[in-house]
Structure formats: C-alpha cells, structure tokens
Amino acid sequence: MGPALREPLPGRAGPPGPTAKAPPRPSPGAAAGPAVIEARALVKRYGKVPALGPIDVDIPAGAVGLLGPNGAGKTTFIKTLLGLIGPTSGRATVLGIPVGGRRNLDIRQRVGYMPERDAQIINLSGFQYVTFCGEMAGLPRRDAVQRAHEILNYVGLGEERYRPVETYSTGMRQRAKLAQAIVHDPKLVFLDEPTNGLDPKGRTEMLDLIRDLTYKRDISVVLSSHLLPDVEYVCRDVVVLKAGKVVAQGNIESLKQRDLTRYEVRVKGETARFAQILRSRYALGAEVDEDSGVVSVAVPAGKTTGSILRAATEAGVQLRHLQPQRNTLEDVFLDTVEAR
Asked: At which of 221, 255, 289 does a domain end?
C-alpha cells in the first residue's frame, strides 16, 4: 500500500486567476517552520573533484529558494537529498528520514521532484503519464487514477489529459511535470527551474500554483531557479550556494536588510571619476547606470554616508541627490556570490 492520502486537491479548470482569491503572500516576519531538511558536513565528490560541501544547513518548512550560479551544486544537492546519488561523507535527513541506504525509497514516497529537463514518457497521454508516476511513488492503481484526474484539473490540464504528452506545448509540459511531482500528495516538493520557457502569462500562473501549494495546501517547496524575481515572489527564505558551499541562508527580508545599505546618488560633474574614487579610496561598491547617470553605492553596516560626501569633494562634483535604496534579492545574490 502507498502512503495515505490527505484531503485531495479540489479539481478546477486552471490555476488561480485574477478573479480567484489570491493565495497569501510570503510573510516576512513570520517564524520559519520546523526543518524539513537537515544537512551536517554533507560532502559529494567525484573522484578527487569536489562537487558539494561540506554543507551544514537547516531548511525550514514553507517555501525556500535554492540559489547559486551555474555549477554551484544545486542539482547535486537535490539529487543527493533524493537518494539518486550517494554522499561521499556527512549526513542529511529529509522529513526526518536519513538519506542513504534503504530509507531512500521512503523519502521518494513522501517527496515530489519536478526536474529542469523534460522527463515525460512518449506515447503516453498526460493522464497515463501522471497515473504511472503516482503508482511509481507507491499509490495503489485506483488511488493513482483518482489523483491523476484531480491533479490534472488542478494544474489546468483537465481538458488536455488524454492528449499525447509529446504534443503538449512548453507550458503544458511544465504543468504536466508539476502534476507528476504532486500526484502522490507529498509533504515536500523540489522544483528545478519550473518556469523555464514560459511566456509571462504562463510564468505568473505557474508561480501562483506554487504559492497555492505551499501557502494553502501545506506542501513545503524548495524552488531552484536562476530567476530571482520568481524566488522573491514565492519564497520567504533562501539558501545560496557557491562552489558547492552555503554562502548565505535565512529570511529574505532579513538578508536584504543586513550588512549593506544602498544609496542612489546623482551628481553634477564627472560621474565615472566619482565612482572610481568611491571604489579605490573608500572601498565602497559603486555602479554607474550609463543611461540615467545614477550611481548605486553600497555602504557597509556601521558606516555613514560621510565617505560619499568626501568622494564627491575629491572628484570635484556637486552632489545633487542622495537617497537610500531598498535592497533586492538580486543585491543579496550578487553581494554573496560575486562578492560585489
């Protein structure tokens, strides 16, 4: 017998639309839930080549973004947690279940995975594909059939369920991949680039589906994406990897407020020289927008704007505008990953 079903997702013709009640936005001040993933000194090497770790991290329940540049180890981390590849050393748990050995099947019965690359089976309809994936996750045939109908309605493929998967558009294939990841009613879902190839409308609908899953259906989500606005729209917390190691983690709003304050600066005079003095003499991050002439200046915590004023004097420019900027998740990413 497969895992017991919780209350089924209600069938509907498509994802939440503009007339539907929107799922709640992530609450910056809300306390994080208990950890659904724990890793301690987790390492994965291929021969002598390090691919991951050592990693020490607690990932809370809810929606968490997994970020990092190409080659940072995001996919290796996910595959290790799923038991698809074995760790070289260290330990990890998923939903309290140790990773590795005989318990890997227990993890996969309780966890969903939406891969970045298409993984549909040709010559199967959407309904057959999702039903098959439900059975593979441990559902009895009857339950898998029932859930496939419900989930395909939920993701907006109810009218297309009997079409061969290979005839689906990019957006439909992404929805089918999401459907197979949640057909067995998991408590945790890994989503690897779920908005790949989607147009703006399809991207918004996919993100609303993900928000609905985590904030209304109590399914925790680990969202791996290179599109930072997607992560900020869905997630409350984030883990940032670089070269296989965690370089930042925590609440997104807290990360945006710590360490650096950014200022928007406009000057009359030679902007490039002003920015160069900020960087070379005062070790401040300074970027010039060539179109607007605005200089974005990053001031470390504990320092004042005095350096900006002195740099303006030294550069012989007149300070016209100085205003704090709201940091974005992109700022956090660049500051931690690229050491901007």
From this structure: 255
Q: Which two tokens stand for residue 11?
A: 């069938």
CA distance 331 to 33: 26
Beta strands 89-94 and 35-46, pairing class: antiparallel
Say yes or no: 301 and 236 in one domain.
Answer: no
| DSSP 8-state code for residue 72 | S
> How far apart, in Å, are the Cα atoms of 303 and each of 221, 261, 283, 300, 334?
37, 9, 12, 6, 20
Q: Could you count the other beta carbons within 10 Å of the beta carbon of residue 245?
A: 17
d(CA 87, CA 77) in angstroms, rounded, equals 9
The values of phi and psi at residue 238, to 5°, are: -150, 150
Task: Check: CB of residue 234 under 8 Å from CB of residue 25.
Answer: no
User: What digits encode the pLDDT tens for the residues 103-140?
Assistant: 888 888 899 999 988 877 888 999 999 999 999 998 99
Highest mean pLDDT among 2-11, 63-72, 101-110: 63-72
Are 57 and 37 in contact by the 8 Å Cβ rule? The answer is yes
Give the structural domain span for 98: 35-255
Residues 61-76 have a mean pLDDT of: 90
pLDDT for the residue numbered 302: 65
CA nearest 158: which of 9, 16, 13? 13
List of E strands, the chain: 35-46, 49-60, 63-67, 89-94, 97-98, 111-114, 188-192, 220-224, 237-242, 245-251, 260-268, 285-288, 295-300, 318-325
